[in-house]
Amino acid sequence: MFNLFKNIIFVLFISVYSANANEVVNVYTSRHYESDKDLYKEFEDITGIKVNYISGKGKALFERIKSEGKNSPADVFITVDASNLWKVESEGYFQEIKSKKIRKSLDKRFIGPNSKWVGLAKRYRIIVHNQNVKAEELEGINYEDLSGEKWKQRIVIRSSSNIYNQSLIASMIHHNGVSYMKKWLPQFKGNFARKPQGNDRAQVMAVANGEGDIAIVNSYYLGIMLSGSSGKKQLDAAKKVKVVFPNQKNRGVHVNISGAGILKHSKNYDNAVKFIEFLLEEKVQKHIVNNTYEYPIVDGVDPHPLIKELGTNIVEDRIKVKRLGKLNKRAVKLMDTSGWR
Ligand SMILES: [Fe+2]
Fold first, then answer.
1. Which percentage of the chain shows pLDDT scores above 70?
2. With a threshold of 0.90, does the pTM exceed it?
């Protein structure tokens, strides 16, 4: 009798174990952090679900998903900027993420249309400046003020083909309307100190060396540069500049996300849901923001100390981030008309 019981337990154990041994989730991610491997390992240890992942540029991964079609092994797609997520969704490649847990832990403004994508971390688009900018010039500064005469030849910013800038302009269209932005954009562009070039970090460098006095960049780049992981030149530049959060007396700083969705042709839907739920757990959020210098998207988690030092109690723009995607085409058109290349 005892032996029979033992055998049943053994068979049960084997069947549970082998079920999990076959469980996988396939992730295509535009995040390329060494540290992500630790996260995947932890998910595997907790759930028994193996994480297979491919990392690459967001655009290239989406092209791959499209060309693989129904045969795509991808279950989860992780990429940056709400506008990119919106594009994947609007082309029909995501399906609804059904999870009470996610709906409970995430603010609605970070969830895409029909729950087809969700934010995983936040980033602010902030102003950096050098010592040529006086305190009174920055007092209560808004993005809108940057079209003013006093900023002539003082602003550096990357090109209008960059999605971060497109989303910022989309948010400004949302708040100010099209006709306001039609006037504002050429004036803003008229204040550029140089032809738009380089990435966000290059703008920080340009402000540090005086090519411009003010730049608009994503918050986490300051963290990366200040951490020293990208070399002494970048560390010195980041130390030389100061940060200001715009629109603090009104709607708040522009907020964007990195995020994820479950693909339409996913063959491991339940595992994909579990995986995204896992990424929103407090301790995982802590791990993410400590490595990416983004802001956590769930409450109760602190950003990395280097990011916390930039400022606390920041007022955030409460716009639903899906609006950024919806207004993207309009933003691109207005930017193009203004001559911002
Ligand atoms: Fe970035």
1. 94
2. yes
